[in-house]
């Protein structure tokens, strides 16, 4: 069976950026043969949140390559040049392209690597391949859309699978009810309910705010309730000094801090990334409620300081027991649709790694995002987007994506050199990419 130097699980922005860095290393005569496995049938980035007028919250300069190599073929600027839109984009006078355009950029970048990515395959498990008492390789088992199980061997592994929808405990019993769905599947699911009259959006972040405004325009006669525990919708703080926490050198500062200091940093700046919509979007929502006051109607409601104590599936709707924290009272509401904009969990890699978890002492990573393992475990296993607690709030964002891949590739070169019988990396074959 063919043995790869690296297999990547997931082919979103993080692993696309890694593929780009690996390709540019090949052009510098260092060859690491890689292969990627993606569950989706083709490339898509937050496909169900491609809402009209939604834009990026991160500068286009924090793309897949610019912060690492501004002269790369894969910068957003070059993408615009290739698409003959550079001058028009300049005339927009913005650092924040639409989400639709940035998705097109990512799709363009991903298309360069179709030859080394298997789409429509779900990774089932990762098994150790032993030689004596040592684990030398990993066997990655995946199943494609035809239910065929494929197995591939690799010397190293990188997991970049993004977040899995976080479903609050009170809603888990409703997972089979099509009237309750996470924002991750919003556009796909909302089309199935064209006649909804009562809609609840649970959450207080960017996704909740965007969905509220989309529902406001999509259902002109429906009642939409925005439900959150907070007293107010607070805007993200993107002022210059605060934004320094997303600089690449701040990752060193966070990683080298004590556990207590790291916890304090994450707590202090939590609202820069979570439960913090854009100010412009907040103003749009406020304007919706203000216009309702002028008209003397209450079509939509902002239920601040509210908790969903219970959610029950009934024939005529989803019944909530809501607790008003301000008035300290419970009351009942019923909805045709419930949208959970409740964020994501980022620990699914533990499930994938279950067969080899005993080889990792505490599931901590080093500065180069490699899981610390016992000495008899030789493969390097890297995590992208699951190291916020050790590397800071930028870990799940585009801010450090390009530079992080350089750090991982340098660690891979060292690891692959050690794994090679000759101690030398093989010379790379000519690039197969057509620019």
Automatic annotation (TrEMBL):
<comment type="similarity">
    <text>Belongs to the lysine N(6)-hydroxylase/L-ornithine N(5)-oxygenase family.</text>
</comment>
<keyword id="KW-0274">FAD</keyword>
<keyword id="KW-0521">NADP</keyword>
<dbReference type="GO" id="GO:0006879">
    <property type="term" value="P:intracellular iron ion homeostasis"/>
</dbReference>
<dbReference type="InterPro" id="IPR036188">
    <property type="entry name" value="FAD/NAD-bd_sf"/>
</dbReference>
<dbReference type="Pfam" id="PF13434">
    <property type="entry name" value="Lys_Orn_oxgnase"/>
</dbReference>
<keyword id="KW-0560">Oxidoreductase</keyword>
<comment type="pathway">
    <text>Siderophore biosynthesis.</text>
</comment>
<keyword id="KW-0285">Flavoprotein</keyword>
<protein>
    <submittedName>
        <fullName>Lysine N6-hydroxylase/L-ornithine N5-oxygenase</fullName>
    </submittedName>
</protein>
<dbReference type="GO" id="GO:0016491">
    <property type="term" value="F:oxidoreductase activity"/>
</dbReference>
<dbReference type="InterPro" id="IPR025700">
    <property type="entry name" value="Lys/Orn_oxygenase"/>
</dbReference>
């Amino acid at each position: 069976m063919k043995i790869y130097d690296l297999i990547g699980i997931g082919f979103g922005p993080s692993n696309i950026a890694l593929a780009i860095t690996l390709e540019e290393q090949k052009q510098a005569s260092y060859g690491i043969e890689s292969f990627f496995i993606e569950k989706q049938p083709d490339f898509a980035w937050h496909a169900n949140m491609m809402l009209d007028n939604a834009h990026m919250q991160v500068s286009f300069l924090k793309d897949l390559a610019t912060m690492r190599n501004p002269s790369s073929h894969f910068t957003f600027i070059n993408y615009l040049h290739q698409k003959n839109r550079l001058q028009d984009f300049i005339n927009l006078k913005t650092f924040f392209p639409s989400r639709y355009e940035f998705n097109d950029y990512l799709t363009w970048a991903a298309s360069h690597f179709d030859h080394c990515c298997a789409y429509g395959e779900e990774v089932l498990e990762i098994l150790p391949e032993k030689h004596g008492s040592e684990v030398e390789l990993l066997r990655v088992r995946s199943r494609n859309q035809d239910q065929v199980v494929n197995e591939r061997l690799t010397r190293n592994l990188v997991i970049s699978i993004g977040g899995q929808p976080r479903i609050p405990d009170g809603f888990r019993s409703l997972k089979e009810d099509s009237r309750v769905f996470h924002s991750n599947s919003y556009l796909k699911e909302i089309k199935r309910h064209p006649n909804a009259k009562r809609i609840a959006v649970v959450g207080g972040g960017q996704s909740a705010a965007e969905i509220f405004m989309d529902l406001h325009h999509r259902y002109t006669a429906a009642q939409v309730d925005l439900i959150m525990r907070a007293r107010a919708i607070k805007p993200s703080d993107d002022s210059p000094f605060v934004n320094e926490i997303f600089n690449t050198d701040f990752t060193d500062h966070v990683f080298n801090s004590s556990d207590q200091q790291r916890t304090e940093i994450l707590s202090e700046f939590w609202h820069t990334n979570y439960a913090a919509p854009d100010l412009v979007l907040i103003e749009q929502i406020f304007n919706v409620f203000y216009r309702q006051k002028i008209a003397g109607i209450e079509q939509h409601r902002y239920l601040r300081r509210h908790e969903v104590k219970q959610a029950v599936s009934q024939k005529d709707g989803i019944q909530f027991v809501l607790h008003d924290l301000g008035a300290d009272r419970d009351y009942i509401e019923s909805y045709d649709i419930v949208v959970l904009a409740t964020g994501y969990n980022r620990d699914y890699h533990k499930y994938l790694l279950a067969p080899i978890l005993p080889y990792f002492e505490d599931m901590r990573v080093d500065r180069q995002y490699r899981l610390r393992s016992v000495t008899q475990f030789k493969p390097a296993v890297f995590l992208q987007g699951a190291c916020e607690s050790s590397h800071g709030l930028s870990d799940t964002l585009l801010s450090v994506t390009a530079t992080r891949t350089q750090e991982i590739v340098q660690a891979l070169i060292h690891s692959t050199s050690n794994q090679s019988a000759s101690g030398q990396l093989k010379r790379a074959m000519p690039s197969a990419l057509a620019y």
